[in-house]
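Hello Y.,

Per our agreement to keep a running log of every chain we model this quarter, I'm adding this entry. I've kept the format consistent with earlier entries: sequence first, then predicted structure.
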Amino acid sequence: MENPGRPSYALGSVDNALRLILLLREGELGVSDAADTLGVARSTAHRLLSMLVYRGFAEQSEDRRYRLGAVLSGAEQASGLPARYAQLRWVAHPHMSALAARVRETVNLSVLAGSRVRFIDSVESTQMLHIGSRTGMSLPAARTSGGKAMLAELTDDEVRSLHEAAAEPVDLDVLFRELGEVRRRGCGINAEETEPGIRAVGATLHSDGRAVAAVAVAAPAQRLTDRVVSTVVPHLKAATARIDEELAHWAV
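Predicted structure for the entry above:
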């Protein structure tokens, strides 16, 4: 297709961001390289690159140079995620990163897959002792904080139907009582149910009024005490509310 030429209404910042993406497709890029190529100040180049990182179009290596991010490198497709989950990650990840920085613990994103949850993204804590990434793992929903949060938004009949063919038996009477507590609290709690020494608190994400995923904060049990959970929950709910606002503009 013939290049139609530069539009009369061109936006300089958008044009520069797109030019950076083309440069990143050719190889790694430093801030000075970007500034020189675009003819802008280093501070401007840094802001543009930071925004590309924020949205997953770029990522920064240990030597502080930039390369293509998962959105453009094909990593999303290679992961085997359905397109709607890749989009969900794209929307949620910046808010997960901000939440992880605020509470200084690992933040996970999971979706319901039958009676189990599948973890599709993680932002690890920078503390030396922390919970590692759970991306790619699958665990029983009834034992995870995010799984409980998502199950709590279903009817008892729907929950029962999901667990009819579950590989691991679940005491539904106990589960229903716990889901009632989840609905009252507005979040799910995993009190060392998936692994000794690990606790987590999770809340749901919504699209078109239905729960589509959950975000959870996970930490060593000795750090994530009940008192600490009470301080983490407001930050968790604020983050999920911001993600919900963005998801309202997408079909997930």
